[in-house]
Specification:
182 residues, alpha+beta, 16% helix, disordered N terminus
Length: 182
Amino acid sequence: MGARSGMARPRDAVQILRDRARALARADAPAPPAGSLLELLEFDLGRERYAIETRYVREVCALRHLAPLACTPRFILGIVSVRGRILPVVDIRTFFDLPGQDLTDLNRVVVVGDGEVELGLLVDAIGGARSIPAEILQGPLPTFVGIRAEYLKGVTAGHLVVLDLGRMLADPAIVVHEEVEG
């Protein structure tokens, strides 16, 4: 369901390129240069504060006209139309095995993309944007296990969890699509 563009290539070439992209996305990234800043969009999920780099953020919109989508993973809440684009909405709480919560008027969809994949992330509320020095990020806390640790860029001393959205968008498990052969 992610938006993909480009010319059609033989299936083997496409698979090779996807494998290379996954390997590069999972490689340990070098430490950011001293003094570099991370531009972040903060949001709430339950009682925890999360953030993603603004370079992935396309827009933030209210959750409206959500259409459920059958035969998709549990974390795909449904689809929405945003300015004429049909996007899947990922419930991050379910994706990260966090306790569920009912939808409210405060819920927002953060439209994110990396140039190849575009989707919406369901969040409870937007906390705002800010910059932090990259070097203040600490490694994962012992309480972060499983899928959360895999997509974790770091945690600040103030317990702001910064997600590695690049890794998340590169994971084939997050992209729901159906290929039609013909």
